[in-house]
Amino acid sequence: MKCYFNYLCLNITLMLFRLDDNDYAFPSAELAEKDGLLAIGGDLAPLRLLNAYANGIFPWYSEGEPILWWSLDPRLIIRPGEMKVSKSLRHTLNARKFETRIDTNFREVMQHCAETPRDGQDGTWILGEMVEAYCRLHELGFAHSFETYLDGALVGGLYGIAIGKAFFGESMFHTVSDASKVAFYHLHQFLKQHDFKLIDCQQETPHLKSLGAYTIPRHEFLEELETLVTEPSLIGDWKNNTIFAKKQ
After folding, report:
1. Cis peptide before 27 (omega within 30 of 0)
2. d(CA 39, CA 5)
3. On the chain, which terminus has fewer CB atoms closer than 10 Å, C or N?
4. Pairing relation of β-strands 198-202 and 75-78?
C-alpha cells in the first residue's frame, strides 16, 4: 500500500509504498519516485535484503530515519572485463605493494566504510543495524569483502552482495592511496573469471567512472537483472575460490 511521508523532515510530501513487516515482497522498482525513492519500512532480514537486491532495490537511510528503499534511474554499472586500469594503477599492481584477501575481515571492512568521510555527506548511512544485517548475509554466503593489506594492516577494501551472476557493490574505503582501487581490480578479475556479467555500482561517482563504470537506464538494468539473478549463485566463503596470488 502507499502512504504519505514527510521526506527527511522537509516540507516535501511524497507518496511511497509502506512495506508489510510480515511480507518480504516489494513493489516494482519502476514505480519509484523521480529521485529513486520507492518504499519505507520493513526490516533488514536476510530474505528481505536478498529480495530487494534481486529486484534492483537497496536500503539507504540515516540515523533517526525509518528504513528507506531505493532504485535509481539511471543506474551506474560496470561489466567484468571492462575496467579501465590507469598507468599509475598498473604500476601499483606490478609493484606488488599490497596483499589482497577475500572474505577474511568482512566486519572490519564495513566498519571502515562506515567511518570514512564522504563528500557531501554528514555522518554515515552504514549504521550498526546495517553492519549486523550484512554480516549475517556474509555468514550465509551472499555478502563478500575484498581486502587490501600493507605490512599486515588493513588499508583498503570493499563489500557487496552476490546473487546469480550479478554483484551489487555497496561501499569501499582506503587509508592508503590506490588501496581501494587494488581491491576493486581484484574483485573485477574474480568476477570475470567466475563468469559474472554485471557489477551494480548504484549511483554515479567520478571515482567509479574513472574505473570504467557508466550509467544505463533503470529499465535496461532491471530487464538484465531479471535473468542474471536466476543463474547459479557462487554461495559461500570466497577465499577458497581465490584465482590470484597474494602480494599482487
Report:
1. no
2. 10
3. N
4. antiparallel
Burial 56-83 (b: 16+ CB within 10 A, else e): bbbbbbeeeeebbbbbbbbbbbbbbeeb
Lowest mean per-residue pLDDT among 11-20, 83-92, 122-131, 153-162 = 11-20
DSSP string covering 3-40: EEEEGGGSS-EEEEEEPPTT------GGG--TTSEEEE
DSSP state for residue 238 in the 8-state scheme: G
φ, ψ (nearest 5 deg) of residue 46: -50, -45
> Residues 50, 163: contact at Cβ < 8 Å?
yes
What predicted TM-score, i.e. pTM, was given to this entire model?
0.91
Tens-digit pLDDT profile for residues 27-82: 999 999 999 999 999 999 999 999 999 999 999 999 999 999 999 999 999 999 99
Contact criterion met (CB below 8 Å) for 36 and 72: yes
Q: Pairing between strand 75-78 and 99-102?
A: unpaired
Is the pLDDT assigned to residue 123 strictly greater than 60?
no
Three cell numbers at 231?
543463474
Please compute, for residue 190, the number of CA atoms within 13 A of its CA located in the half-sphere on the CB side: 27
Q: Report the amino acid identity of residue 165.
A: K
What is d(CA 238, CA 89) in angstroms, rounded to the nearest whole number?
24
Residue 145 CB-half CA count within 13 A: 27
